[in-house]
Amino acid sequence: MSEQYDVIVAGAGPAGAQCARDLATRGYDVVVLETESEDAFPTTSNKSTAGTFPSMITSFGVPDDVVMNFTDKVVLESPNNHYTRHHPGAVLEFADFKQWLVEDGREAGAEYRFDARVTGPVMENGQIAGVEYNGSEEVRAEITIDATGPSAPLAKALNVSELERENHAIGIEYELTGVDLNHADYGDLTDAMMLRLDHDLAPGGYSWIFHTGEDEAKVGLCYIQNDSHRQNARENFSVDDYMEYWLDRDPRFADAERKEGVQHRGSAHIQMPGDLSTDRFMAIGDTVPSIDPIWGEGIHKGMKSARAAAITVEAALDKGMTDTSAEQMSIYDRLWHRDVAPNQRRRLLMTELLYLADNDRYDRFMEDLHGMDEATMRKLNNGNPLAVADLLHFDDRALLTEFIRDKVAIDFDGFLPKPFNKRRSNASAAFEFD
């Protein structure tokens, strides 16, 4: 006879472990199924750059001892320019962070089963009633949560996942020692998180250097398999080839060495989610595309999606009055769109427009940022359409024409301001749209 729980969580990543931690703290009987063995955890899943901001640290009580370095600025680079914005952040030791989440959840009462590969849902009367794992074992619960990432075995089986290959991002990261963080030809990266827009290094994506202390840094790149990547990619270059190409040419790495055995690989989808829940079921974290499309920051989004799922569980199982219908579970969908990623569509469109630009436009973009006041910068980061328009120049017409041609089926209401020929700012010349 199958064991019965209040909630099953598939996957012990940041979203899954945080959800279990929240639920156990609230007194729910929760079990987490994780593919990796406990001795190895997390090895194959240790794939995040783990850059985050104080709001995540504070909201989820993350201890200082899982932080590699507290940073005080963000640096944006283009091939020949850079922009520095003072903004506090933190670079986590991702493996330690994940282990802390597991142990803290266990102390609150969550049960963990490692070496437990989820293979599919247990169905009853057309609804998920539990999970099959390791081929023949099963466990049942009132509510099941898929936090397995892009593999999404449960979400796919329930037709909740709508991940598309064309929106698939792949990345690689090394940890280096001997990095010159204050090279004369570049901005100062001491205590900084740097993102670089440069199609020569990451066509259709970006690269990064995150200072982790002393002369050490996390260094990596990623790109989306999009039109921009196909237009700018080098023939037969893999993500590894681009990484080696960068390390060989950037003088900041002239004396750098890789930490032995430390390499992170990952993938995610950068797109709007479709359904997020159904009867007795929710999908959280990277199982649905929760990563911020502009900054690539996924930990905070995943953690917030976990908390939204825990709130939904509490509403569904409140005081024994169980209601796990699709309608009740859709509370999670509403919380996701309101609290987890409220401007996701706009930010996705901004990202696609950004990656269509060429390297010369990236250099000019840095100049535009230098002329932008703090209030407009905040609006731009939130996807405000008028702030986006402030960055447009007269000679961006070709870029926008290509963008709109590719996205003609998308509803632009609220994203592109009208009319364009009335907009002017200290960061851009008049722009005419025709």
UniProtKB/TrEMBL annotation:
Keywords assigned by UniProt, alphabetized: FAD, Flavoprotein, Lipid biosynthesis, Lipid metabolism, Oxidoreductase, Phospholipid biosynthesis, Phospholipid metabolism
Superkingdom of the source species: Archaea
Pfam families: FAD_oxidored, GGR_cat
Record's signal peptide: none
Digeranylgeranylglycerophospholipid reductase catalytic domain mapped to chain residues: 190-244
Protein name: Flavin-dependent dehydrogenase
GO annotation terms (biological process): phospholipid biosynthetic process
Matching PANTHER family: DIGERANYLGERANYLGLYCEROPHOSPHOLIPID REDUCTASE, GERANYLGERANYL DIPHOSPHATE REDUCTASE
Species whose genome carries this gene: Halovivax ruber (strain DSM 18193 / JCM 13892 / XH-70)
